Amino acid sequence: MKRIAVFTSGGDSPGMNACIRAVVRTAIFKGIEVYAIHRGYEGMIDGDIKRMQSHSVSNIVQRGGTKLKSARSQEFRTPEGRKKAYDNLMLHGIEGLVAIGGDGTFTGAKLFYEEFGIPTVGCPGTIDNDLYGTDYTIGFDTAVNTALEAIDKIRDTAAAHDRIFFIEVMGRDAGFIAVESAIGGGAEFVMVPETKTDLDAVVKSLKHLRKSKTSSIIVVAEGDDAGNAQTVMEIVKDKLQDSTKDFKVTTLGHIQRGGSPTARDRVLASRCGMAAVEGLLEGYQFHMAGVINQEVVYTPFADCIGKSKPLIQDHLKLVEILSI
Amino acid sequence: MKRIAVFTSGGDSPGMNACIRAVVRTAIFKGIEVYAIHRGYEGMIDGDIKRMQSHSVSNIVQRGGTKLKSARSQEFRTPEGRKKAYDNLMLHGIEGLVAIGGDGTFTGAKLFYEEFGIPTVGCPGTIDNDLYGTDYTIGFDTAVNTALEAIDKIRDTAAAHDRIFFIEVMGRDAGFIAVESAIGGGAEFVMVPETKTDLDAVVKSLKHLRKSKTSSIIVVAEGDDAGNAQTVMEIVKDKLQDSTKDFKVTTLGHIQRGGSPTARDRVLASRCGMAAVEGLLEGYQFHMAGVINQEVVYTPFADCIGKSKPLIQDHLKLVEILSI
Amino acid sequence: MKRIAVFTSGGDSPGMNACIRAVVRTAIFKGIEVYAIHRGYEGMIDGDIKRMQSHSVSNIVQRGGTKLKSARSQEFRTPEGRKKAYDNLMLHGIEGLVAIGGDGTFTGAKLFYEEFGIPTVGCPGTIDNDLYGTDYTIGFDTAVNTALEAIDKIRDTAAAHDRIFFIEVMGRDAGFIAVESAIGGGAEFVMVPETKTDLDAVVKSLKHLRKSKTSSIIVVAEGDDAGNAQTVMEIVKDKLQDSTKDFKVTTLGHIQRGGSPTARDRVLASRCGMAAVEGLLEGYQFHMAGVINQEVVYTPFADCIGKSKPLIQDHLKLVEILSI
Amino acid sequence: MKRIAVFTSGGDSPGMNACIRAVVRTAIFKGIEVYAIHRGYEGMIDGDIKRMQSHSVSNIVQRGGTKLKSARSQEFRTPEGRKKAYDNLMLHGIEGLVAIGGDGTFTGAKLFYEEFGIPTVGCPGTIDNDLYGTDYTIGFDTAVNTALEAIDKIRDTAAAHDRIFFIEVMGRDAGFIAVESAIGGGAEFVMVPETKTDLDAVVKSLKHLRKSKTSSIIVVAEGDDAGNAQTVMEIVKDKLQDSTKDFKVTTLGHIQRGGSPTARDRVLASRCGMAAVEGLLEGYQFHMAGVINQEVVYTPFADCIGKSKPLIQDHLKLVEILSI
Description:
Chains A, B, C, D: It is found in: Cytoplasm. The structure is a homotetramer. In chain A, helix 2 crosses helix 3 (79-91). Chain A folds into two domains: 3-139 and 261-306, Rossmann fold (3-Layer(aba) Sandwich), CATH 3.40.50; 143-257, Phosphofructokinase domain (Rossmann fold), CATH 3.40.50. In chain A, the strands form two sheets. A seven-stranded mixed β-sheet of chain A has the order 3-2-1-4-5-10-11, sandwiched between helices. Chain A starts with a strand and ends with a helix. By secondary structure, chain A is α/β, with parallel strands linked by helices. Chain A has eleven helices and eleven strands. Chains B and D meet through helix 1, helix 5, helix 6, helix 9 and helix 11 of B and helix 1, helix 5, helix 6, helix 9 and helix 11 of D.
């Protein structure tokens, strides 16, 4: 393999730049030419492809977002779109790809490999941590810390006013951000998509806690089965009937996607980026490079997409015990 | 004057603890006994009043929220409530008050002074910066920096995806947070209550900017005349008719009230706290201690409440010029 | 077991408070009485022991340092000291201990168990990450992020001035902080105690890099075999003989021990704290509760102290590759 | 005036990029061509001069350091050097300059104007705040906050161990950073170049404080008359003779120069940058654009360099009172 390309796709996550940097420099270190594709599959179709040098990725390891931009491509979902993309890669002599993204990115990469045989190794770039094949995804640690800093700030004002705060964090299908920010933030409750939320039990506990605590924080994953934070707040408020309390909702939103990546995310991103290039050279063709138990592991895209990754049971137990 | 009390009231703001600390230690330094009233006027009515020592305020200078808690008191609005409060102060021999808060706090203090003659000096504790009689209020600088950090994070993801973000910051009647965070955040537009918002002009500019910029950030004060961020986004989206752009809204909410205070807020809070005690000793009775042009200034509550504080004209000009 | 006590000992680390909180609340949750010993073994000897309630550990999960204070005790190294400590524990009816600390703490706990048979479960509280029996120690992640933020700041000024910076981070015997902050910080070199440092090779590389880079960052663990940052700088400066460059040294020092713990440290600390109490109840008597491969693992103190924990080989490779 | 150039010179400071951005965009907004000179006077001599567009300064408002790099030029101190610089400016048709820097920068600019008549308006870019003609300098607020965050972290570990910490902050001739970080950090003492340091008084106070406080923080400006932090620590340790205390020194160093600028610095930098361009157009030729009492003020370089700027007296009083 003499020439590869790297791109980011889907929702951006902090650490993507560190990962791009690692891919580019590892490739150059190993004597391979490396190109960047801008705006993910969209740029592949448009031929937005440029040669990268070592200095092209200087001073980006600490930056949020993605220097290569990201996009969701409708056209790549069509056979015509993918053919165009393939032709552009051929035009530049690209023999292998590194795809940084999540579920959707790998679904596209898998299909593309099956149709055109372009070897692709993926790096797990998503804040949600919901990818099988890696202990953590790139961007997750930063997102949790961002959520946690927000919770810390909100606790200041919650405590000053005896309030019950419902804080909505990202996580449409997965509660990882919610659970870790709830433990770290000392939240009284956490509501996640993976478990059935029992609002009556929450109300009962709140009544009980009321004697010992004047303010409470409840972390709600956006995809919880009981509804989003606003919905949950209204139900709880209605059931609790406590006029001495203020009920407030804060939806953290897109701040969770940005920001300078944490150490953990930079190290993970760098390691996955290096492993992706090494993986291509070793012959992996439709795999994601993740880190499990401190070791690099290559997992077929089919498993990354198809298998689910459970929450850590101890973590759910912790929220319950520590809120007493 | 031999014995004074300090309390925080209204919405909490970062730096209130630094201010409490300064009041307590300045009083002790000057040989005066100092008490803390918990939960503002509510605690005054309930007699929730405790003696403070120097170590009572150790290790709080860096903390958000307020150690003394805050509340909005309905009962203090009644003559009966105020009479109870007065009786409690007399019971403890309190001869003067330091009130840390905003508009509502000082309105109460003014009335209380007129009825019972208890001298009160106020400290400007509110994140909104909308108090006449001080260049900045305690908590404003922290709130702006919190908003700015959020905008920085959002720009990462906005730039990665070619998005138009509408970010709502606090400010029901005043645009100070909006304007300074817009300048600092490199926002394309800012919408504030003090000026008439012309959405057609914004749409026209966005069309123009579109050629040079792929993403834009628009900061909206919650009290803007055109509506909140969600409303404004919907109108702009409808008028702009650009299907290549994503339109997103983020409402920063209560994170702006919390967090460890910035240096500027700690220094301002400390200075106002010291000045409040000195002011009581010098005979001020219904004044706020603020800092104007680097000097301590005592302004009658009537002016603090009644006079308006304009935005800095240069700041509005900056947003316009710097967004090109 | 009906009554246990918890203490922190040795160098403090961020997350110790989160760990104390978890120990206290898990104990109470399980119906056990829990006491706090202040100032580690010193306080055990002095009888500085107090009953804890759930609210005793409110609002500390986010705080650096340790609420229970820490100390290094000379007296505990004597049989007389340990006897006094034992007598005090008996006086309070303490049947089991949770010891939060590092090497020295566990050495003491092991001896104490052997002499008096008091069951003790440890939690790995040290920023250095040099404890066998856990993937990470409590405080390590925060320390790395603190070092990284410092490196990010220094890179700004290094880049502005074409400078070579030698940044000394903590790590007397272990290079974990150095390696992860070097990867994350995009450093050109890292020098750690675990590997022989070849300054001639560094000088040669710097000469080579000079063509492509105008500024460089070199991370030096305080215990590197080539000397501390100041020493290393002087040798490199002397060998390099490049008058166009400024050579600067920054020693990060004690800021690495403080600060609000990161999400990772709070979650790890909470989990170890819970596991320590559960471990005591399950009959562990001279073990540390750590987390390996996402699972709680109990390791005998003898192994924690005696076995060494190697750096991750991929990490050293990353620094080399990514600095090109 | 049709064409101007901007450069940064001397020690870099956070906010310089925001200032460059404001200069470039204000110029373009007003229909003036704008060039950037790299590496200060050094680049002027080398002819390192490039045309700037609006997008040249995109996405830099939040970045520390200076995109244009900075340098200290020996050659510019010679008449030959300055002649070369002048010739290069003529070659590009530059009719006016914006110089972002401190004392040394303005000394050069003044001389250059006197010799060649090139109008120059300066912006106060230095972390030290020691420039007459502006309430604050660009970078000062960020530096103070960086120092403060470090002090907050150190207090965590100081409190955990009953230690006396001597923290050295920047400030060779001025104590602004020291004083504001000492107030904000709740330090027990501050030592600054502007006032005579009496170590015997410090020792006496420490003995007195010992009864009420177990740990102390002493902030030392690097240019204090009693010596740097290490020297002062050794003297105090020797005089105090208290073996129950640990004495520690931390020198914050270059982290104080870097980092993303605070809101205050970004706003000030933006305003000064705009004012510098407007000043050139209004005919100012050897002036610095600063902000005093919230208004833009143009001060002759001679005064900026020659007149001294005193510390705020209340601030020194605050450190004394608040440390009780």
